Amino acid sequence: MTDEGVQKPLSELLAEASINLDGSASSRDEAIRLAGAGLLAVGAIDDAYVDAMIDRENSVSTFMGEGVAIPHGTLAAKESVKSDALSLVRFPDGVNWDGNDVRLAFGIAAKDNGHIALLSQLATVLMDPEKAAALRAATTVEQVYGLLEPEDEDE
Known about the structure:
- With 155 residues, the chain is α/β, with parallel strands linked by helices.
- The protein has six helices and five strands; from the N terminus they run αβααββββααα.
- The protein has helices at residues 10-13, 28-41, 47-59, 114-126, 129-137, 141-148, and strands spanning 14-20, 63-65, 68-69, 85-97, 100-109.
- It has a five-stranded mixed β-sheet with strand order 1-4-5-3-2.
- Helix 2 runs antiparallel to helix 3.
- The protein is globular, with a radius of gyration of 14 Å.
């Protein structure tokens, strides 16, 4: 029996070294490379995965709305993933993402089919307009972690 069904909280997958709150990019691909750099910085991927992130973007946009994109590699590149991880790049001045204004790019690296669970967790956070706005405005790593912590399930 493995722990495959147990999903780590987003805050545990996002290392401080993979957070850039003052990113600047002149193009979508440059923004994706910045998100990939955060994953490389923590040893979650090898260089080939960054190219696969751009390949994915060229076939299917990862723009999610609300100023957020979640670039990730193609399935063919999963061998380039060493461990599950997230990166976050905040673009205070925005970046043109195929005609959309992107302020946050979450890079995703996941082994096997883990990206689906990661995308689901991220979507839950980003569908909350207040949390999404707070993430777009975050200027400290502590703010980011606070916003990505799982909600208390006590009612």
